[in-house]
Design a protein that fits this description.
945 residues; alpha/beta; 4-stranded mixed sheet; 30 helices; 27 strands; Adenylate_cyclase_1; Adenylate_cyclase_1_N; adenylate cyclase activity
Amino acid sequence: MVDIRLEIDEGIDRQDLTRLRKRFLAVNHDRLQRAHLVMSSRQQLVLRLLPLLLHVNHPLLPGYVSSTTPAGLSNFVPEPDLVQEAQSFARSFTYKAPRGYRVEQPLHALFLMGSLGSVAYAEDSDMDFWLCHGADLTPAQLAELRKKCDLLQEWAATLGAQIYLFLIEPEQFASGQDNDRQLSLDDCGTTQHYLLLDEFYRTALWLAGRIPIWWLVPVYEEHRYAQYCATLLAKRFVRSEEVLDLGCLAHIPPGEFVGAGMWQLYKGIESPYKSLLKLLLIEVYASEYPQVQCLSLSYKQAIYANQLNVDELDAYVMLYRRLEAYLLERKELERLELVRRCFYHKVGKRLTQSRLNRSKSWQRLVLERLTNAWGWGEALLAHLDRRNQWKVGQAQQERRLLVNELVYSYRFLSQLARSMQTEQAVNARDLAVLGRRLYAAFERKAGKVEYLNPGIAPDLSEETLTLVECLPGDGSEPTYWGLFRGSLAGLEWQNHSPLKRGKALLPVLAWAYLNGVIDESTRLTLLLNGSDLTEYELRGILTSLRRVLPLPFAAVTEEKLLSSSYPSAVLLLVNVGVDPLRQHSQANVHMASEQVDALGFSGLRENLVLSIDQVVLNSWNELIVSRYSGDNALLQCLSELLNASAGKSTAAQIHVGCFCQNRAASIVKRVEQVVAQVFASIEQGKDSRYLLQIEQQLHVLEWRDGRAGFISFTHVAELSGYLAQEQARYIRWRVDEYALLGHVLKFILPVGREDAIQVFYRVNAGQAQLYVLDERNGLWQQSQPFIDEQALLLPLQRFLNSLLYRHTVTESFTEQALNSTQLSVNYHRIYPDGTDSPERIERCRLVSAEREHTFYAVQVIYEEDGSLTLYCNHQEFSQLQYGDQLYHYVARYILGMRRTAERYPCYITDIDLAKIVGHSDVQTMHFLQRKTILERRLNAALQQL
């Protein structure tokens, strides 16, 4: 009888069931024999002994935990030769069938799942075993059984076999609850129960115990699988102790296609050949939905039809046949060719080697028949067989094909998730993570170093390379850097195509390093055309890349992909190929100077930091190279680095290197110092400003609202104007140690406090320069004649006291206001007098009562329309009344109150802006600036009288 049909409604023939069982076991036997042919003798020993070791507990046998550990495989009786092999581990071991042998055993069956026995198996492949057990095991028994499995895994490893034992409770598994958590390791966040079951049914090798009842259910009865199984058991066509039920494949939820596809895409980023085959199978299944003809059903159908050719029933051959039919139907011949290449590489047999019949394995014979049918010639086979020798050119071509297919698969899965509305809450997140993995691995963007070798070729390194600063002879193209294979001389490079070219040197070197084109044994030749690069510098750059960015990079976690990328390791290379003192080197002059600041070197204050090449490894494992040049290179680099790191709790490790011909060590030290101070000044996320001087220019690197930027000033006067701008809140200052040398602002700016108004003055030739840093670090300054300290400071003190009093009495009496820190006012004098460099600051102690009677109040009240009224010694002078002559009449009144007609300055003692600003939260500097304007007008009018 060829084709067996088991019609449940017409009656089932027990002889047909027996024939079916024999067919499945015959195919199982042939596949197991093939598995032994490709295994080492020690691996074969593990495979043979494993059922016996699980069947018994013996103290001297591998895997022993205790005598009560669950043991005993259903219907298993070891052959005498197997017992004899076990005695090589324990001479005293003898096998006795347990009493009551027909009682149900706790272990139901042992299967080997995966590629073993198929054309794609390799000797170093893992072996995954499913150990099916009864549902009545207690948690303690399960724990002991798990421990025994772990010990057996360790024992197998000593014999060169990497095995994994998964515990399966059939009823729980059939319901979709994969009870051994390790089973979920091959999952990217979304369950794939049915596709896992499909793979099990078409690849599993039965080793001992019960057989799957699924074998006995015809494909056309899969839709009423439960009813069919119940009939088989109820009518005792099969006994329950002979079979186990892991479930059926009548319906696969569409969400599984997305979940399984995402996991294969994830694996495909590093190992694309195997994953692309499974990705395309998922595409085939999805195209057939909802009437999916799984490969396992095709496998079962073939056995029912007595088509028992073990070659055609090979799990990977069946996979290829299905993909081939799908792509031929769609006329996608390029994709089919890629599938064939993936299949060939997965099998891993080089057909151009060892072609004698007596040395051919069954795997090689199967592969030869396939490749002959594909029409592959010797040249193509030789090219594919040399994959371990492929270099950059071949890897680039292969990468393009593989990446295109991976990206297509991602788009297909994304569309599938939307169209089938499959568990959006889960899949949307997983798809986003996977999309970012693909983006990080393959997407091109400015500055990103392209990774060529996702599992394509084992070694892209070159023995000899020539690095050329290329200057095209006709001048039609700009100068570029090229990396050429071999050792070239002179203009030989013009007759060769570079492996890589770039406008700058570092992107070329970073590319060669990342892709392993340059390793520690590579011999490099330099051909230069104007660059100051030296072999010493080149070696230093490559050493720095290896030290700061060691390969391979650590795997990217899902948590990092769920947030935006940020720098995790940074290498700053200063003056690559540039000598900052070239004119002195050419003249063979060694510069020595007491001015060691690399940003203001020597008496000429020369900037020695002329360029920075920044190499960043970000949290998504993207390697990005940026170049900054010119006097502001350091500031541009730091600004972008700060912005890229914004909001991240983990600061990037920043390393600085410089290997130029002059002052390299001092350049590194200075750049490291600036970098450390800048990042320290923005810690805790507070707004801050860092003042840096490069040559004669002053630069303020500002961190505000989580963003960085910088402003440049040609002289101190411009900086003072910037400092006088009003601020919405307090911003602290940090002044670089080499900035503003000898200037009073270097002393003042770092002293600012959020809870105080700081007043400073310095005397020079009868004039005092007043400085006020207010509570938001705004700077107000004014020059006026100096008589003595009290006469200088008391008018300002009266004004500031009035402001603080007005703020206190108008503030709402909330608990927050009452508990808030009141502003204090501190007064300081800067020494020495004159214009020499400041050396110290001393606090002033004012005694206002002694001279209080000599002052009278000059108060200014602003109205809503901007007009103002002055009260001089409580006498009112309004703009409404006096118009443009307001200051004239006030000055006349003040002069009339004086004992002499002397025109010494008068001072505003209070300003009320409540009608204009509407609240009391106005910066002190705003009042001081208005005070300056009003006093200037009033004193000008006084001088005219």
